[in-house]
Amino acid sequence: MSDLNDYLVRSAAAISAMVERDLTGEMERAASAVVTALSSGKAFLIAGNGGSASDAIHIAGELVGRFLKERKAYNVIALPANAAVLTAWGNDYGFDTVFSRQVEAHGSAGGVLLAISTSGNSPSILAAAEQARMMDMTVIGLTGDTGGKLAPLCDILLNVPSTSTPIIQQGHLCLYHHLCEVVETRMSNG
Length: 190
What we know:
Layout: H1 4-21, H2 24-39, E1 44-47, H3 51-65, E2 76-78, H4 83-93, H5 98-106, E3 112-117, H6 123-134, E4 138-143, E5 156-159, H7 165-189
Parallel strand pairs: 1-2, 1-3, 3-4, 4-5
Helix pairs in contact: 1-7, 2-7, 3-7, 4-5, 5-6
């Protein structure tokens, strides 16, 4: 067990490694894809399990509600948020397709799926990404170091250089808060 300062040093090292990895180009492409989709009336769908499900709901809250600016709501759907769909579909057909089924329902060509998986290997996230690709949606992956099996399914990969789940999730928070800020600024100025 580490002490607080050790944990903070490891967290800061992961953030520094993201700076060195320089995800600026990927973030620009991700923000542009989301702005283009939302401006065209397409949905921005977000999927994740466990802590990543909470992140998906957090992101939707920032963009449907507000992040930093008073403005109109955006068409953003956190796929883990609908308990009835998750439990009914998961019970009847299995959990691996709970998100792909919702992508089929809410997605369309020109829309965006943000697929969040710290390992990049979650079966339900992989199935959602495959469904989105079949529907000509842009797939943005938010993962850990290698991107796992999700990496080749992504048009854009935002991967935190760590293998520690909590450290990856902290990196995800930095990345998606920045994404929210850029999207909100561009949509408000557009």
